[in-house]
Amino acid sequence: MSARIGWGVVVTVGTVVMLAACAPGSGFAVLDRSAGPDDELPFELPDSAAENVDLDSIRFSTEYEGERLYLAKGVTADAVCLLVVPEDHDDWSIGCGSTDGTIAVETAAGPYSIRPDGAPIPEGDTELTPNLSVVG
Which pTM value belongs to this model? Predict the structure, then answer.
């Protein structure tokens, strides 16, 4: 199994910073809910993934073009991560960044953008969930 673990590109938008600072919890409702059966990964992540990701916080968000998209809390208080798992479970990737802005994560299916609850959808993006979009 090959993997790419890296920090996503962080683009901070002034309004997003203010929204994240005022929002209770993580700023991502999906991460504040209890885990369910859909949140279980179809394979076990290597120990090295825990260097950046709180593995107990992984939550399924949506599926797009054959990739399952999961959000997770980072190991630092201000980090959020996107785990992208293709159908064959190979070439999965994790991108993490600060919760005070928009994080762009590039994968084989295309770049995804993560944003906190209530943040505007970046211009040209296609919304997948309240926290995820495909970069346009």
Answer: 0.78
